[in-house]
Protein backbone atom coordinates (compact mmCIF):
# COMPACT_ATOMS: atom_id res chain seq x y z
CA UNK A 1 0.00 0.00 0.00
CA UNK A 2 1.37 3.39 -0.99
CA UNK A 3 1.60 5.60 2.08
CA UNK A 4 2.15 9.33 2.36
CA UNK A 5 5.22 9.82 4.53
CA UNK A 6 6.43 13.11 6.02
CA UNK A 7 10.03 13.29 7.19
CA UNK A 8 10.84 16.27 9.42
CA UNK A 9 14.56 16.95 9.70
CA UNK A 10 15.20 19.18 12.70
CA UNK A 11 18.95 19.79 12.62
CA UNK A 12 20.31 23.20 11.65
CA UNK A 13 23.80 21.81 10.94
CA UNK A 14 24.87 21.21 7.34
CA UNK A 15 25.86 17.59 6.84
CA UNK A 16 24.07 16.58 10.02
CA UNK A 17 24.01 12.93 10.98
CA UNK A 18 20.28 12.91 11.61
CA UNK A 19 19.65 14.42 8.17
CA UNK A 20 21.87 11.82 6.48
CA UNK A 21 19.90 9.05 8.18
CA UNK A 22 16.63 10.75 7.22
CA UNK A 23 17.75 10.61 3.59
CA UNK A 24 18.54 6.90 3.92
CA UNK A 25 15.08 6.33 5.41
CA UNK A 26 13.60 8.19 2.43
CA UNK A 27 15.49 5.99 -0.06
CA UNK A 28 14.00 2.88 1.53
CA UNK A 29 10.49 4.33 1.79
CA UNK A 30 10.49 5.45 -1.85
CA UNK A 31 11.86 2.11 -3.02
CA UNK A 32 8.98 0.44 -1.16
CA UNK A 33 6.52 2.50 -3.23
CA UNK A 34 5.63 5.25 -0.77
CA UNK A 35 5.41 8.95 -1.54
CA UNK A 36 7.69 10.99 0.72
CA UNK A 37 7.95 14.67 1.51
CA UNK A 38 10.85 16.02 3.52
CA UNK A 39 10.78 19.24 5.50
CA UNK A 40 14.01 20.77 6.79
CA UNK A 41 13.34 22.98 9.79
CA UNK A 42 16.58 24.90 9.15
CA UNK A 43 14.77 26.45 6.18
CA UNK A 44 11.68 27.40 8.19
CA UNK A 45 10.61 30.27 10.41
CA UNK A 46 8.80 28.84 13.42
CA UNK A 47 7.93 30.97 16.44
CA UNK A 48 7.34 29.72 19.95
CA UNK A 49 3.82 28.74 21.01
CA UNK A 50 2.12 31.53 22.97
CA UNK A 51 0.05 29.11 25.02
CA UNK A 52 -3.16 31.01 24.20
CA UNK A 53 -5.02 27.77 23.27
CA UNK A 54 -7.06 29.61 20.61
CA UNK A 55 -6.21 26.67 18.34
CA UNK A 56 -8.37 24.40 20.49
CA UNK A 57 -11.42 26.37 19.34
CA UNK A 58 -10.41 27.44 15.83
CA UNK A 59 -8.36 24.35 14.81
CA UNK A 60 -5.58 26.64 13.63
CA UNK A 61 -2.78 28.66 15.17
CA UNK A 62 -2.99 32.43 15.55
CA UNK A 63 0.72 32.77 14.66
CA UNK A 64 1.19 33.06 10.90
CA UNK A 65 4.52 31.40 10.10
CA UNK A 66 5.85 28.17 8.56
CA UNK A 67 4.41 26.00 11.34
CA UNK A 68 0.93 26.63 9.92
CA UNK A 69 1.87 25.03 6.57
CA UNK A 70 3.62 22.14 8.32
CA UNK A 71 0.46 21.55 10.38
CA UNK A 72 -1.62 21.40 7.19
CA UNK A 73 0.83 18.89 5.71
CA UNK A 74 1.22 16.66 8.77
CA UNK A 75 -2.48 16.11 9.36
CA UNK A 76 -2.93 14.56 5.91
CA UNK A 77 -0.04 12.06 5.90
CA UNK A 78 -0.04 8.41 6.97
CA UNK A 79 3.38 8.38 8.61
CA UNK A 80 5.45 11.01 10.46
CA UNK A 81 9.21 10.62 10.83
CA UNK A 82 11.19 12.90 13.15
CA UNK A 83 14.96 13.13 12.61
CA UNK A 84 16.81 14.98 15.35
CA UNK A 85 20.19 15.43 16.91
CA UNK A 86 20.24 14.90 20.65
CA UNK A 87 21.18 17.98 22.65
CA UNK A 88 21.69 17.56 26.40
CA UNK A 89 19.86 14.22 26.36
CA UNK A 90 16.78 15.55 24.60
CA UNK A 91 15.43 16.49 21.18
CA UNK A 92 16.58 19.63 19.41
CA UNK A 93 14.89 22.87 20.42
CA UNK A 94 13.60 23.24 16.86
CA UNK A 95 11.79 19.91 17.14
CA UNK A 96 10.27 20.79 20.50
CA UNK A 97 9.14 24.19 19.23
CA UNK A 98 7.37 22.59 16.25
CA UNK A 99 5.77 19.92 18.45
CA UNK A 100 4.36 22.68 20.67
CA UNK A 101 3.02 24.49 17.62
CA UNK A 102 1.25 21.34 16.40
CA UNK A 103 -1.22 21.75 19.25
CA UNK A 104 -4.16 22.15 16.79
CA UNK A 105 -3.79 18.43 16.00
CA UNK A 106 -5.54 17.58 19.27
CA UNK A 107 -8.86 18.91 17.94
CA UNK A 108 -8.29 18.11 14.25
CA UNK A 109 -9.07 15.09 12.17
CA UNK A 110 -5.49 14.03 11.51
CA UNK A 111 -4.73 10.89 9.51
CA UNK A 112 -1.32 9.60 10.66
CA UNK A 113 -0.99 6.70 13.07
CA UNK A 114 2.66 5.68 12.85
CA UNK A 115 5.48 7.84 14.15
CA UNK A 116 9.16 7.01 13.71
CA UNK A 117 12.17 8.59 15.38
CA UNK A 118 15.71 8.89 14.06
CA UNK A 119 17.96 10.28 16.78
CA UNK A 120 21.71 10.86 16.69
CA UNK A 121 24.01 11.58 19.60
CA UNK A 122 27.71 12.24 20.08
CA UNK A 123 27.71 10.15 23.25
CA UNK A 124 28.35 6.45 22.71
CA UNK A 125 25.73 5.20 25.21
CA UNK A 126 22.27 4.54 23.73
CA UNK A 127 20.74 5.76 27.00
CA UNK A 128 21.65 9.29 25.85
CA UNK A 129 18.65 9.11 23.51
CA UNK A 130 16.09 8.03 26.10
CA UNK A 131 15.15 11.61 27.02
CA UNK A 132 14.36 12.31 23.37
CA UNK A 133 12.10 9.28 23.25
CA UNK A 134 10.38 10.36 26.47
CA UNK A 135 9.77 13.85 25.07
CA UNK A 136 8.36 12.49 21.82
CA UNK A 137 6.16 10.04 23.72
CA UNK A 138 4.59 12.98 25.56
CA UNK A 139 3.34 14.24 22.18
CA UNK A 140 2.34 10.79 20.89
CA UNK A 141 0.37 9.93 24.02
CA UNK A 142 -1.70 13.10 23.59
CA UNK A 143 -2.72 12.01 20.09
CA UNK A 144 -5.11 9.09 20.56
CA UNK A 145 -4.59 7.47 17.15
CA UNK A 146 -0.78 7.43 17.13
CA UNK A 147 2.00 5.12 18.26
CA UNK A 148 5.78 5.09 18.17
CA UNK A 149 6.48 2.47 15.55
CA UNK A 150 10.30 2.36 15.60
CA UNK A 151 13.41 4.22 16.77
CA UNK A 152 16.95 4.48 15.52
CA UNK A 153 19.45 5.27 18.27
CA UNK A 154 22.56 6.31 16.36
CA UNK A 155 25.18 6.99 19.00
CA UNK A 156 28.84 7.92 18.84
CA UNK A 157 28.30 10.25 15.87
CA UNK A 158 29.33 13.72 17.02
CA UNK A 159 31.11 15.26 14.05
CA UNK A 160 29.17 16.29 10.94
CA UNK A 161 28.83 13.38 8.51
CA UNK A 162 30.32 10.94 11.04
CA UNK A 163 27.36 8.61 10.56
CA UNK A 164 28.68 7.81 7.07
CA UNK A 165 31.31 5.68 8.85
CA UNK A 166 28.60 3.58 10.51
CA UNK A 167 27.13 1.34 7.82
CA UNK A 168 24.89 -0.33 10.42
CA UNK A 169 23.05 2.95 11.08
CA UNK A 170 22.74 3.74 7.38
CA UNK A 171 21.37 0.25 6.75
CA UNK A 172 19.01 0.48 9.73
CA UNK A 173 17.56 3.77 8.44
CA UNK A 174 17.16 2.42 4.90
CA UNK A 175 15.47 -0.76 6.14
CA UNK A 176 13.19 1.15 8.47
CA UNK A 177 12.07 3.27 5.54
CA UNK A 178 11.58 0.21 3.39
CA UNK A 179 9.37 -1.38 6.07
CA UNK A 180 6.94 1.55 6.21
For the termini, the CA-CA separation is 9 Å
Identify low-pLDDT runs: none
**Mean pLDDT over the full residue set:** 97
Strand order of the largest sheet: 2-1-3-4-5
Major sheet, described briefly?
5 strands, parallel
Approximate strand percentage: 15-25%
CATH architecture: 3-Layer(aba) Sandwich
Would you tell me which CATH topology applies? Rossmann fold
Q: What is the number of independent domains? A: 1
Order of helices and strands: EHEHHEHEHEH
Rg, nearest Å: 16 Å
> Helix fraction?
25-40%
At the fourth level of CATH, the homologous superfamily is Flavodoxin domain
Structural class: alpha/beta
Q: Quickly count the helices.
A: 6
Give the strand tally: 5
Shape: globular
Oligomerization: single chain
Overview of this protein structure:
The chain is of the alpha/beta class and 180 residues long. It has one domain: Flavodoxin domain (Rossmann fold, 3-Layer(aba) Sandwich). 33% of the residues lie in helices and 20% in strands. The protein has 6 helices and 5 strands. It has a 5-stranded parallel sheet with strand order 2-1-3-4-5, with helices on both faces. The radius of gyration is 16 Å and the shape is globular.
List keywords for this structure.
180 residues, alpha/beta, Rossmann fold, five-stranded parallel beta sheet, 5 strands, 33% helix, globular
What's this, in brief?
The protein is α/β, with parallel strands linked by helices. It has six helices and five strands, in the order E-H-E-H-H-E-H-E-H-E-H. It starts with a strand and ends with a helix.
